[in-house]
Design goal:
Layout lengths: L8 H14 L2 E8 L7 H13 L5 E5 L7 H4 L8 E2 L4 E2 L1 E3 L3 E5 L15 H13 L6 E7 L6 H10 L3 E7 L3 H17 L3 E12 L6 E2 L6 H9 L3 E7 L1 H9 L3 H4 L4 H16 L5 H5 L30 E8 L2 E2 L8 E7 L5 E7 L9 H6 L5 E3 L5 H9 L3 E3 L7 H10 L12
Parallel strand pairs: 1-7, 1-8, 2-6, 2-7, 8-9, 9-11, 12-16, 16-17
Antiparallel strand pairs: 3-4, 5-6, 9-10, 12-13, 12-14, 14-15
Length: about 425
């Protein structure tokens, strides 16, 4: 028996095994919602398949212990997971998609799972620790609605390697509860990849006109209000219901429809956030937006110099236009990403093209690349607030045109700054 406050050797081995499994997963997307009935599982299935259709190796984990619906949507009813003494073998389907669900372990579809919190936590940990996922580009996790045991358990286990994709419908009655889910992620330190508005509009099969049956715009307004990216809309489509009931995934069976294109556009935005050339940065704990990062300070605190780099290297982002630091943040054509060591020396300098500009998208995109300081000519106050929420320091009014020189002068405490050229 271990003393109070100590962990057993078995617990340490479990943690090591969990970390080893997670180290093989490039990026984890937790599909969440504070509201039931918004089509969260439908979104999870079609996002996973859209990613797999791009040649990526994708896992789909269903942690809705009491109401698993993933097996039905994928036509896997009656199939069972392979189980050895210490490992669970996922079911492979549709090419590169690997699936694990409680629904693939129970004997009958109508068999209830009557468990309390500790049992659910243990099985969720096993799904991560003991499943032979192999090497994955993405793991998509379908969590039950709300902010209870399952989302809390999975978030605590993998928050440093995950991003939340939050699903809502346009109505205010849904967005009120979904806002709580965003707050839940913030409290947990789980970065929000973005919000998807499901059941947004309806395309008439006769005239092709889009009609707002359930209203529209609620998800986009919520994303703007909560300061998180908006990933896009998915229309209300009867074929989505039919495909789910028949076990024929929508994006495969109806790949040429407008709704399938919307899923593709959403995946474009997600993969832009986690581009392959920044995989290691995306996995770093520094990308979680944790404001406890010693290198991250609030914008405009007036302090410059090597003090900021104590305790580790830094990654700077400098917005540029034609290779020069641009005076207006919104005019950026490419970001110069500049890594420095603890002595203030530049280690490397690369240029990356940002994703299409949308409100709230750039702060998590840069934070997930390990950026902890931006040097800019000008930036609006709202954008500065969003960067601060992601643990990224902002320096405005920089007068140096050369991005590398701007970083070096900043670390030496000699960077000349003037008025914020975009203060609104």
């Amino acid at each position: 028996m271990t003393e109070c406050g100590q962990t057993s050797q078995g617990d340490e081995m479990d943690d090591l095994m969990l970390q080893e499994r997670l180290s093989r997963i490039g990026r984890t997307l937790m599909v969440l919602s504070g509201k039931g009935g918004v089509g969260k599982s439908t979104v999870a299935v079609n996002l996973a398949l859209s990613l797999a259709a791009r040649g990526l190796r994708v896992g789909l984990l269903d942690v809705d212990i009491h109401g698993p619906s993933i097996p039905k949507m994928l036509g896997l009813n009656g199939k069972k997971l392979g189980v050895t003494e210490n490992e669970i073998i996922p079911i492979e389907c549709y090419g590169k998609l690997h699936v694990v669900s409680m629904g693939l372990l129970i004997e009958h579809d109508d068999q209830p799972v009557v468990w309390r919190g500790p049992l659910k936590y243990n099985v969720i940990k096993q799904f991560l620790q003991n499943v032979m996922w192999g090497t994955l580009d993405y793991l998509v996790i379908d969590a039950p609605p709300g902010t209870g045991d399952e989302p809390l358990s999975i978030g605590q286990l993998i928050k440093e390697r995950a991003g939340a994709v939050i699903v809502t419908t346009p109505q205010q009655v849904a967005t009120i509860d979904v806002a709580k889910c965003v707050t839940f992620c913030n409290q947990l330190g789980l970065p929000v990849t973005g919000i998807i508005e499901n059941m947004s509009g309806f395309f008439c099969p006769h005239c092709g006109k889009e009609v707002d049956i359930f209203m529209s715009g609620g998800g986009k307004e919520l994303a703007s209000r909560m300061g998180v990216p908006f990933l896009g809309t998915v229309p209300l489509d009867p074929d989505i219901v039919r495909s789910g009931d028949s076990g024929q995934p929508y994006v495969l069976s109806y790949s040429t429809t407008e709704t399938a294109k919307r899923f593709d556009e959403i995946v474009d935005k997600i993969t832009a956030l986690y581009s392959s050339d920044n995989t290691e940065s995306a996995r770093s704990p520094a990308t979680t937006g944790n404001n406890n990062n010693p290198a991250a300070k609030s914008p405009g605190d007036g302090k410059q110099g090597a003090m900021d780099s104590q305790g580790g290297t830094m990654k700077f982002a400098v917005p540029t236009n034609e290779g020069k630091l641009c005076m207006h943040f919104g005019h950026c054509e490419a970001f110069a990403l500049i890594d420095t060591d603890t002595q203030g020396r530049v280690l490397n300098e690369t240029y990356v093209t940002p994703p299409p500009h949308e409100p709230g998208l750039l702060p998590p995109w840069l934070a997930q690349r390990g950026v902890n300081c931006i040097i800019a000519g000008g930036m609006g106050s709202r954008a500065q607030q969003l960067f601060a929420q992601h643990g990224v320091k902002v320096i405005t009014g920089a007068q140096e045109e050369n991005p590398r020189m701007a970083v070096e002068n900043y670390l030496k405490g000699t960077l000349v700054t003037g008025a914020n050229t975009c203060d609104h």
